[in-house]
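Handoff note, outgoing to incoming analyst
You'll be picking up this chain. Sequence as last confirmed:
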Amino acid sequence: MPAHIEDYALVGDGHTAALISREGSVDWLCWPRFDSGACFAALLGSDEHGSWRLEPVPGTAVASTRRYRGETLILETRHESPDGAVTVIDFMPPGNGRSELVRIVVGERGQVPMRMSLTLRFDYGLSVPWVTRLAPGGEHRMGGIKAVVGPDTVVLRTSAELRGENMHTVAEFTVAAGDRIPFVLTYSASHERLPPAKDPFDLLEHTERYWQDWIGQCDVRGRYAEPIRRSLITLKALAYKPTGGIVAAPTTSLPERLGGSRNWDYRYCWLRDATITLLALMRCGFYDEACAWRVWLERALAGSPAQAQIMYGVAGERRIPEMELGWLPGYEGAAPVRIGNKAVGQLQLDIYGEVMNALHLARVGGLDGDNDVWAVQCLMLEHLEAIWVEPDEGLWEVRSGPRQFTFSKVMAWVAFDRAIRSAEKFNLSAPIDRWRSVRERIHADVCAKGWNEERQCFTQVYGGDELDASLLLIPLVGFLPPHDPRIASTMAAIEKDLMFDGFVSRYRTHQVDDGLPPGEGTFLACSFWMVDNLALQGRMQEAHAMYERLAGLANDVGLLSEEYDPDTGRFTGNFPQAFSHVALVHTGLNLMRHEQSIAQATGHPPGTGGDPAPVLDNESL
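Most recent structure output, in case you need it:
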């Protein structure tokens, strides 16, 4: 039985990532990439679908606590009993030339009996590997095992004595104060020579230095610096280093409702998620990632603008067929388990605005210009000019057919607005007059057809009466100013209809036909958007209180899922979720900037109140 979603921690190396429970079980790891088949898939089934447990012998009375070592992605889990204490150190060394997961048991006090149980099951728990022993000495140094099936090989090296037990590899050993027992699990392609052993303690030092150097570039300080900086580390862990692509989450099929069927594969690069992640990183000074992402984007979009997709594989792959894995029962029985995502073929007009906004702000932030990228942008806008009037599947990827989503049209307006700004600010060749005309037509269209006069609010679709939390972004992207009465009344309607126990839902799934059974958790990113709107309306005390409540939902190691169920107090959806962490970063930075602006304008120290928050400057990172 997997742990609760909120009970997992993340380690990663820029190629893939693993989820480790409080009890010390690695229940999810795809090798060699985020979107490869999982060799540990207990998260979506049981230990028999692949797991790696390293814990005190069951039955030992222990109290366990965990943390990340400083501002790194090195997980430390401390187990204490009356007879002793040990710390298990888990990490994946980045930039090491191959992908590996290292676990080191360190004796702190007395003696603690430990048990290790390794269950490798490739292809998402389907394939049992052929396992052979590796003798200690020579290039292997420590002894261990080699597990092979099809294209994959995994090697475990350790100083502990291993034995086979019912298709598992186990070890039982006692750790005394001062002992250090390492376990190094290394992936390689089965046709290649086994990678040589490396000193696990050197790898630990390298990993700690890597993360310290990386976060050391960030100068974010202030009231919300701690959750923001932890979120930035999490976002960095979701970037695929070889290509610059950024995945939405490292998992698939964690349900949006416990026991439900809204289960999707998020191990791909959505243009939307990647662009907002990019903006969060740029706002905090991480421009190497921005450069890498822009190059990835140029490769992914190469070709006909009409063939641009909403998502790609981590290397820019375009075919991501969706299929169901019938042999996996799903997280807590939430079936089906899906890999791939057929939303790849949908039309979602908002991605054009997301991409244009990100590229514009990259230029504003000083990223060197690229004529090829501007040429691609111009072609994309030429295509968007022809299709913006069409219905689409929208931001939430409905499976009930295309509609005229209001937010999609707003983001089409953003696409032309940001392109015009780039052309004017950086003297780029463009048909600016024509783009201005299109921008004006889109704005008028949204205001006429997306506004419901009877309800006094913008609605999810043209001519409809249902609300959508994406409408909270209208003032944030600059489509209308925050003081426009239509913004305040739309916000009030969302507070009334879409807020539950202080959290915001995307829309009412029981009222909107999205092609799926109704029911899901509240959406954390939408709740952060509400905080931004509270601030823009001058309701600063409410904004700070709501932000602190949302940030406080993060688990003990600072991670957020996609959604939250207020009734059960449980995380739902894929985990950790880039969208949620990006929203935490942006909103936290916005609130701190509001405080600084108020302090400068009024002489009030930050956090003491003052005048309403200023309008967000869309040209400022």
